[in-house]
Amino acid sequence: MSGDATPRQQAWDALNRRLVGALLALDLDDVLTLREPAGPDERPRGLLGRRKGPLPPRRFVSATAGQSVLVLETIGSTSFGGAWPMTAEQEQRLERLGWERPWNDELTTWLRDVPVLDAPRAALALVRALQVLDVDPTSLEQSLDHVPHGG
Asked: Is the pLDDT reported for residue 151 higher than 70?
């Protein structure tokens, strides 16, 4: 890395390096998720002081380990039933980066498959999606879940 990198670029580079290792360490059916933290809850309060309505969406990326592929996912655009209002430019950039729109009405997120053995490419795809969505790389929350499929 050159000494000219901005702190933000250094944060993206560090995230990419960490993601490569985390993706290589996933077991079958593990789901690694990175998401922006929840903001203040500004939903209106009801009569008894409880918050009304759904929580606002948070931008995220995830990778699910399959037998031979990592299934990558990022928040979907409201233009096709997703939760995040994206500009046409953001949608075009995701498509140019290899992300696919949902192929059926039950899906509402952008998707992409990458071979398990190509974790560096998968990590870069996740980082690039977060960049398109203008997420702060220093504020991301990470979670690891195990979600068995089939059986």
From this structure: no
Which residues neighbour 72 within 8 Å (Cβ) at sequence distance 6 or greater?
61, 62, 63, 99, 111, 112, 113, 114, 122, 125, 126, 129
The label of the residue with tokens 């690039």 reads 128
- Cα 1 to Cα 148: distance, rounded to the nearest angstrom: 39
Strand order, beta sheet including 69-74: 110-115, 69-74, 60-65, 30-35, 141-146
Judged against a pLDDT cut of 90, whether residue 140 lies above it is answered with yes
- Element (DSSP H or E) covering residue 58: none
The residue among 139 and 57 whose pLDDT is bigger is 139
If you search the block for the tokens 């500004």, which residue do you land on? Answer: 42
